[in-house]
Amino acid sequence: MDTILTPALALICWTLVMWLWMYATRIPAMQKAKINPAKLQEKSEMDVLPKEVRRIADNYNHLHEQPIIFYALVFYASLAGSDTTVMVYAAWGYVALRIAHSLIQALWNFIPVRFAVFMLSSLVLVLMAGINVGALLGG
Asked: pLDDT band at 2, cuts 50/70/90?
């Protein structure tokens, strides 16, 4: 659990959990709304689905946005040797914050709290980038 790559694997697994959750809620909702997926041409045609279902799908998409920076920082740290204990803890912190963000968005979606968690996770990425840059310049 002390390798920098383990948090990356954890976030990948969490993304797959959200993928399963998305389809477990979306498929029944599409059936109930009588949406034929073969005839969909615009994403907006899914707007008739309940907001609770759409929020899960939105979060799944969010897990393919900012976390890309996380994956790049983690793999850089692993390859460059800047995978210090602080970096590993920061990576685990980021994963915990992204899981919290997912659960807040999917279950509650109180925007001020969700935004605060997002900002904290963003600051963790800044810290991780700073550690990598510091290691590059110092080593």
From this structure: confident
